[in-house]
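CopG family transcriptional regulator
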Amino acid sequence: MPKRLRLTRRFPVAMTEDGYRRLKRFSREAGLDDGEALSFLFEHFDSVTDHEILTHRLRLFNAELEARKR
């Protein structure tokens, strides 16, 4: 039987409601719990993101960040 993924780190995170809902949906669709889904995404970050789109989205997110904090 294959070994189960061992989660060794825990850290508090603050997420937007939209981000949290998307994480929950991804986790459910992938059959993972939230921690496993985050681990998968970050372990495979380069292969699951398009660098150009990521850069563009990050610029937009940063531009809106201060307004979102209020």
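thats it. The longest helix spans residues 51-69. The radius of gyration is 15 Å. bye
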